[in-house]
Design brief:
single chain, 2-enoyl-CoA Hydratase, Chain A, domain 1, OB fold (Dihydrolipoamide Acetyltransferase, E2P), 3 domains, 6-stranded parallel β-sheet, 5-stranded mixed β-barrel, 16 helices, 50% helix
């Protein structure tokens, strides 16, 4: 009886201790340029943290900015999160520029480490300037520096700036942060250090590292999409979740340079397969690379005119290999390919451009590859047929019996019915001159030599 009482008491103590243990805290590193891979990683990380019962997710940010679509996907996930999200610019020396500033403003808690900065949230010009736009004059540039940008921007840029300013002001009002400075970060591209951001109520906390941040957030009440939460983070050991294979794979293929290379490898493989049918492997690899490259490109802000120029350039290069254009199609193809590759990525966001050196190398390699494969294919087509029924024409065989018109002969180790305009004798060597169904027309080898 006493033993049972002890066991039940120990079990109750374990259950109470487990119930009293605070929920975990998850740290999601958000480093480098923000793109489709980062958005996928954060979105899935927030969903998994919620399913695991975490009480707080810390986005540890160090980014120069990123794509608008990826940034908005992350912000949507934060706003819909049922658990608090703390955006923490760390470690010292990190920054939350451009898209990082929007994410910090949208988070439930905004924190920075000493020696970090945020700001410069002016939207980057996407694509070409609007119709009728002209470069700003010196006087307009002076007005822009003074804060009056009404004449220094073309209409499209004005629309983007006004939209971005309203977007970030909405987050400032939602989280009770400094909305005036947020608009200045968008319109004037200003930045702040950690201490200045805290003094101007841009952020909520300055902390040295994640444990220090959790100690300072302990007991804080946070409003989320699921209601109010009270944080109990003082004695919690945070769990850092690194990007998994899927996020790393997306990060690699959504690099514009890698996506362009994959697309070109796909084109190379398919062109080689169509030029030399039967190899199979180049076609399989080419098809996979082309599909993966196109999948990556559809996740990026691409210019379809640039993609069309790339395809047109490849078409010209292939045509040059088969048509006597005296180099005009080849040169035009290289020019079209280079211009298309430069125009392909329709954004000036850092980390999402295609280097000019890579474009030059790809253009040169493409030209050499197309001309090499085409020359090999043309040489193969000029060779005599060495298989099939046509290969029998010109072959030499041996007559198996005597006959005046038709007989049996052995040609290529096979017995064929043969006919001739002259009598044939057993053991005589004959040459095939024509084939009709299963009957070959032959002439004696001596006669064929005399006729030649």
């Amino acid at each position: 009886m006493l033993f049972r009482l002890i066991v039940l008491s120990a079990f109750a103590w374990v259950v109470n201790a487990a119930a009293a243990a605070p929920a975990p805290v998850v740290v999601l590193p958000l480093t480098g340029a923000i793109g489709p891979a980062a958005a996928d990683f954060v979105t899935r990380g927030l969903a998994r943290a919620e399913s695991d019962g975490a009480q707080l997710v810390v986005l540890q940010i160090d980014t120069p900015g990123g794509l608008d679509t990826a940034m908005r996907d992350i912000i949507k996930a934060i706003l819909a999160s049922r658990i608090p999200v703390a955006a923490f610019v760390a470690p010292s020396g990190a920054r939350a520029a451009s898209a990082g500033t929007y994410i910090l403003y949208a988070s439930h808690i905004a924190a920075m480490a000493p020696g970090t900065n945020l700001g410069a949230a002016t939207p980057v010009q996407i694509g070409m300037p609007g119709p009728g736009s002209t470069p700003p004059s010196d006087k307009e540039k002076d007005k822009a520096k003074a804060g009056d940008d009404s004449h220094a921007q073309d209409p499209m840029t004005k629309k983007q700036v006004h939209d971005a300013a309203a977007y970030i002001r909405g987050f400032a009002q939602l989280r009770g942060r400094n909305g005036d400075w947020a608009e200045r970060a968008v319109r004037e591209a200003v930045s702040l250090s950690a201490d200045e951001a805290l003094a101007q109520k841009v952020i909520d906390v300055v902390a040295g590292d994640v444990p220090d941040l959790m100690a300072k957030l302990d007991g804080r009440r946070i409003s989320t999409a699921a209601g109010e939460r009270v944080l109990d983070t003082a004695h919690v050991i945070p769990t850092t979740v690194e990007p998994d294979w899927k996020s790393r794979f997306l990060a690699v293929i959504t690099n514009p340079s890698v996506a362009l290379i994959l697309m070109m490898l796909g084109v190379y493989g398919l062109f080689f397969e169509f030029s030399s049918p039967g190899m199979v492997l180049p076609g399989v690899i080419g098809g996979i690379c082309l599909l993966v490259g196109l999948f990556a490109l559809q996740m990026l802000p691409i210019n379809y005119a640039g993609l069309a120029l790339i395809l047109l350039g490849l078409t010209f290069l292939v045509a040059e290999a088969f048509l006597p254009a005296y180099g005009s199609l080849g040169v035009g193809g290289l020019i079209a390919f280079a211009i298309g590759a430069i125009m392909l990525i329709d954004t000036d966001v850092p980390g999402f451009g295609v280097p000019i050196a890579l474009i030059a190398v790809l253009a040169l390699v493409t030209a050499l590859f197309v001309f090499f494969v085409s020359s090999v294919a043309l040489k193969a087509r000029r060779r005599p047929v060495v298989s099939g029924g046509e290969e029998l024409i010109g072959s030499v065989g041996e007559v198996l019996d005597d006959s005046d018109a038709e007989a049996w002969a052995r040609v290529h180790s096979e017995q064929w019915r043969v006919k001739s305009s002259v009598p044939l004798k057993r053991g005589q060597r004959v040459r095939v001159t024509a084939r009709q169904d299963l009957t070959l027309t032959v002439v004696p080898v001596d006669d064929a030599k005399q006729g030649g």
